[in-house]
Amino acid sequence: MAGYSAWNEESARSIIASLAHLEGATLPMLHALQDEFGYVSPQAVPLIAEALNLSRAEVHGAITFYHDFRTAPPPGRVIKLCRAEACQSLGCEAVVAELEREHGITVDGAPVGDAVVETVYCLGNCALGPSALVDGELIGRVDAARIAGLCQHGKAHS
């Protein structure tokens, strides 16, 4: 997992402690942990609960309510495919259907190799939809073949 540290309880405790003073610190803590480790380890739940005097259920509820949080290490590549209205009008749902039918890739499903395709709603590239975000690069006018190639770790730009 390039760019992320391996899960480490001591580092997690330090991150949690550095944010415990904030009002509504749960979400900043979860984001900081995910930014550091690539996911929010279930081992962090009791640490956050203790630091904020919350129940474990309350912390777990925050993690599961917000779809952006992962509870397991992410795959090697996350491809975010926009499915908002503008991209829908430019064919993103046909891309989703073709990905599944022709390439066996289910959006918001299981990883394909070490890549996963996830739904997002608006990448701000509406005029050039359907759009995707791959390795931090915004790509316009994507089709199913391009997404499938990116799942095999093709270069995002080409």
Q: What does this 3D model show about the protein?
A:
The protein is of the alpha+beta class and 158 residues long. The protein has 2 domains: 57 residues, no CATH class; 75 residues, 3-Layer(aba) Sandwich (Glutaredoxin). It is 42% helix and 11% strand. It is built from 7 helices and 4 strands. It has a 4-stranded mixed sheet with strand order 2-1-3-4, with helices on one face. A hairpin with a 2-residue loop joins strand 3 and strand 4. The chain is elongated, with a radius of gyration of 18 Å. The mean pLDDT is 92. Keywords: 2Fe-2S, Iron, Iron-sulfur, Metal-binding. It comes from Bosea thiooxidans.
List keywords for this structure.
alpha+beta; four-stranded mixed β-sheet; 42% helix; 158 residues; 4 strands
Q: What is the CATH topology descriptor of the largest domain? A: Glutaredoxin
Helix proportion: 40-55%
CATH superfamily of the largest domain: Glutaredoxin
Top-tier CATH class of the largest domain? Alpha Beta
The description of the largest β-sheet is: 4 strands, mixed
Instruction: List low-confidence stretches.
Output: none
**Mean of the pLDDT scores?**
92
Order of helices and strands: HHHHEHHEEEH
Distance between the termini: 24 Å
Main structural class: alpha+beta
Shape: elongated
Beta fraction of the residues? 5-15%
Into how many domains do the coordinates divide?
2
Per CATH, the architecture of the largest domain is 3-Layer(aba) Sandwich
Widest β-sheet, arrangement of strands: 2-1-3-4
